[in-house]
Amino acid sequence: MENELSILISWLISFIGIGVTALLGINIWTSLSIDKRIEVIVKKEVESLKEQNVELRDQLKNYSLAISERSVGDEYMRMGITGDAIFNYLNSLEYSIVAQDKSLISENLDSCLSIIKEFPAIAHCETTMENLENIKEILMQIHDERSYELYSYFVSSSKNENDLSLQESLSKEKNEEGNIR
Question: Is residue 180 scored above 70 in pLDDT?
Answer without folding.
Answer: no
